[in-house]
Amino acid sequence: MRRAIFLLMASWLLGTAATAGTIEMKVNGLVCGFCAQGIEKTLRKYPATDGVIVSLENRLVAIATKDGQDISDAELTKALTDAGYTVKAIERTDRSLAAIRESLQKK
Amino acid sequence: MFRMHGYAGASLALLAISTLPAADAKPIAFAAGTTVMGEYGAGTMNEAQVFYAPRYFFSVGAGHLSLQSDIDDRTRDITYARLNYLVKRWNLEAAQGNVFAWGGAGRGHVGDTGANVLTGNAGAQVDYETRWVYASLKADYFDSSAFSHRIDTLQVGLAPYAHEYDTLATWFVVQGRQYTGDIYDGVEWALLLRLFKGGKWVEAGATADGKLQAMFMVNF
Question: Which of B30, B55, B162 lies nearest to residue A34, judging by beta carbons?
């Protein structure tokens, strides 16, 4: 019984770890705080969004998604295009927003 | 001291904008965003505006412009509704350029006669900005059966450091403004300090005549 519970918990943990993640996007046109404010406001509307970081210096928009949830590349591209910006690349990574923030502060 | 007559100032403005990267307060901040702006223009003009942008490429709203002639006692008070449209945007790696146009209508009150007249409004703005430098050229035209005024504004700004979203942005701005219709003789130059962080923006400085020039903007 204990083994069954352990296996159940392990599979649940592995499952959520696999689906929760960070989406990093390279975006053109990010030059001011208003740009960042608009993008953050747009992306926070998604129920799957757990957190957002915008770096003007690195042309980076990073989104952490909630466990088990995702936002498709097409949806993200459309959202940023509709916000007035140009998405150049989308990458799914294992870096947490905290790690991204830390690496940005080191630069 | 810095006054220039006729359209020499406008020519200078065009020359400056053609040789420098450029931007300024935009009539559309971001999609689903509201912009509130107010400006005290050295006693010559005061303006308040509120715009809402349903999409990133257009906004609708209203404004009130007061003009007080520096030459005689004429005054104009214009209350208008306006549609702003983003004609073209260039999203570059570390820069953005925009062309905006707008049009509207409202009521103009002629201070010296007391008349109220239907007043049309049209304008355009070209801007370009990086995190270090920006410039914009704006023309705002108001026309009625009783008056016709155009306000041309050039701004060139330099940032002493590149700001981030969560840090205070500082800009040193040179502004040249020219009015038609006997509001001001020559070009009104001003030096401004602009600060913004998040969605809030304030700028203040002085014209070459020593008068206060100030503005605020809030986006939410």
Answer: B30
